[in-house]
Design goal:
Elements lengths: L1 E2 L6 E7 L4 H10 L6 E8 L7 H7 L3 E3 L5 H14 L4 E4 L8 H6 L4 E5 L11 H7 L4 E8 L9 E8 L6 H23 E2 L1
Parallel strand pairs: 1-9, 2-3, 2-5, 3-4, 5-6
Antiparallel strand pairs: 6-7, 7-8
This protein binds 5-O-phosphono-beta-D-ribofuranosylamine.
Length: about 190
């Protein structure tokens, strides 16, 4: 448990590459009175990420970094985050793997949401793999990020039933609804005001 000092909220950056529906739910959560976080920055590797619109809507600065050179991109991101005194990084559909050096710079301060019941189905195409393996359940996991992909300490998970009619698309939709509830819950579990 990490207790923030006084009534000040923990400054948070959210990293996205795509739609940003988790970003939206985190922004809405951050605006609640009892939320321990305030979102100060949105970071993306993709100028076309649809989720960047939430930065505009909620007046949170968007910063897109060119990942042609990952080392340079990460150096710039680290600088930006340190300058803004960000203390928490929430990965929300960020499609880049952070380097060991990056993770070391923010030890215990990076969270990720993954659309499976980890340790099952790390990596990509989780829904298709869960359905092909005839799993009865899948779900989502919020975890700390360490240097191994989707392997850091689990904070919270939510199970979702897979029905016979489910396709990767319908399952993704069902799980996403739960993700939007789980990420704020997990943050509240780790950080208290
Ligand atoms: C979510 O399913 C998340 O678990 C995964 O990527 C997806 C991002 O969706 N890491 P969105 O951009 O938040 O809508």
């Amino acid at each position: 448990m990490v207790q923030s000092t006084g009534p000040k909220k923990i400054k948070c950056a959210v990293f996205i590459s795509g739609k940003g529906s988790n970003l939206k739910s985190l922004i809405q959560f951050s605006k609640k009175k009892n939320s321990p976080i305030s979102i100060e920055l949105i970071i993306s590797d993709n100028t076309k990420a649809k989720g960047l619109k939430f930065g505009k809507i909620f007046k949170i600065p968007n910063n897109v970094f060119n990942y042609k050179d990952k080392i340079i991109a990460e150096k710039k991101i680290i600088l930006k985050i340190k300058n803004k005194k960000i203390k928490l990084i929430c990965l929300a559909g960020f499609m880049r793997i952070l380097s060991k050096n990056f993770i070391k710079s923010f030890k215990g301060q990076i969270l990720n949401i993954h659309p499976s019941l980890l340790p099952k189905y790390k990596g990509l195409n989780t829904h298709l793999r869960a359905i092909s393996n005839k799993e009865k359940y899948s779900g989502c996991t919020v975890h700390f990020v360490n240097s191994k992909l989707d392997s850091g300490k689990i904070i919270l998970q939510k199970k979702v039933k897979i029905s016979k009619a489910d396709t990767a698309k319908t399952l993704a939709k069902k799980i996403l609804i739960q993700e939007h509830k789980l990420y704020p819950k997990a943050i509240s579990k780790v950080f208290i005001l």
